[in-house]
Amino acid sequence: MVTAPLQQHYPTARRPVCSWCGVGLGMSESPAWQDGFEVTHGICQPCTARVMQELKEPLLDYLDSLGMPVMVIQSDPAVFTANKYACTLLGKERQEIEGSPGGDVLECIHGFEPGGCGNTVHCKTCTIRNTILNTFTTGRSCTAVPAYPDIQFFDKVKTMSIAISTERVGQVVFLRIDEFSDTPGNHGQ
């Protein structure tokens, strides 16, 4: 016969804490959290950044071994890093890409507007941004999604034909660039 209430043995609420530093995740610290809550584990943003930095070199070796342009996107969604194929395709050094919003990396014309990438009226309908955010939210991969961003090339604006694939891996999304070319009608602009 059970003498203690089941509530004592099977708490109904959980207190998420960072596995690395022990800080509470997503909840304010209050006396209500002191007793009666089961502890679960995740990882906080500062520890995620620290772990990602420590894993960066092995990650870059892995990404470079894929043989295709891949960027690793953080949840904010800024580019954490990119492999050598993505850097070559975009004509940028890795340091220019890391930490930048995706639209800035691609030279999207809307990234030059007030508010910048992710904060303009056009960003709400950006196929690339929405695909990445969908993969973060649902965990579902997307394959060969077509997008047609307007890209700044020196003194010209070109509509590019881009196809991307996304896959969530832990707290990041891998974005593969499957296609990156001019759309018809751009020549001579």
Overview of the molecule:
- The protein has 189 residues and is of the alpha+beta class.
- The chain is 28% helix and 28% strand.
- The protein is built from six helices and eight strands; from the N terminus they run αββαββααααββββ.
- It has helices spanning 6-9, 45-65, 84-90, 94-97, 102-106, 127-138, and strands spanning 14-18, 38-42, 70-73, 79-82, 142-147, 150-153, 156-169, 172-182.
- Strands 3, 4, 5, 6, 7 and 8 form a six-stranded antiparallel sheet that branches.
- Strand 7 and strand 8 (172-182) form a beta hairpin.
- The longest helix has 21 residues, at 45-65.
- The chain starts with 5 loop residues before the first helix and ends in a 7-residue tail after the last strand.
Instruction: Report the end-to-end length measured between terminal Cα atoms.
Output: 83 Å
Main β sheet profile: 6 strands, antiparallel
Shape: globular
* Strand residue content: 25-35%
Integer average pLDDT: 79
Q: How many helical stretches? A: 6
Instruction: Using the CA coordinates, give the radius of gyration.
Output: 21 Å
Order of helices and strands: HEEHEEHHHHEEEE
Unreliable stretches (pLDDT < 50, length at least 5) are 1-12, 27-40
Q: Give the strand tally.
A: 8
* Helix residue percentage: 25-40%
**Structural class assignment:** alpha+beta
